[in-house]
Amino acid sequence: MYFEFVKFLNVQLLDYRKELLYPELVASTRPSSKEALATEVWHLVGESFQKHFRSAASILQQNGLTPGHLKVLMLLSPGEAMPMGSLAQGLSCDASTMTWLIDRLEERGLVERKGLPSDRRVKTVVLTPQGLKTSALVKKRLYKPPAELLDLDEETLERIREVFKASAPEDDAAAVSAGT
Questions:
Q1: Which of 33, 78, 98, 157 sits at 20 to 30 Å (Cα–Cα) from 121?
Q2: pLDDT digits (tens, 9 = 90+) for 153-176
């Protein structure tokens, strides 16, 4: 009986606090300035990204890949061999981690290691035909826009594209393959 009473009081107190805090919570969700609106939009972009990331993890799992494998596949360009050291730099990982990732991708027939003719110490990695197919399939599924985005008119989509293009970092894959 005592516990039921405490539980009752606890619920009553929580409901009372909610009533007191509700106007404050609502006010904090209503942007009162351009910065507040931008903060809310950026927060929602982050939440959308997290939702997409969970979906992406499922897509990768269905294809027997991990996020690390995807990063390697994203850095490799069709028909271009890339030094393992450059791949490790592009992923900000050490050589042993890169070796492990490439070993797994090679076991699945998605990449092939080759020697660099000008320096036999350097190993390069290139996508195999199966790797090209898998990479294209995964990218197609990952980059499929959500319905909410498809519901927007072209003008709005073009404006969103402009904003994100302006804030996009330099193409890391191009910088890595160029050796910068």
A1: 78
A2: 999 999 999 988 998 776 544 444
Specify the CATH number of the domain 65-180. Answer: 1.10.10.10
Closest to 81 (Cα-Cα) out of 119, 120, 121, 128:
128
Comparing CA positions, the residue from 129, 94, 136, 83 lying closest to residue 108 is 129
Of 116, 140, 132, 162, the closest CA to residue 59 belongs to 140
Q: What's the length of the chain?
A: 180
Q: What residue ranges do the domains of the chain occupy?
A: 65-180
Q: Which of 104, 162, 111, 168 shows the shortest CA–CA distance to 134?
A: 111
Between CA 165 and CA 172, with CA 168 as vertex, the angle to 5 degrees is 130
pLDDT at 116: 84
Tell me if the pTM is above 0.70: no
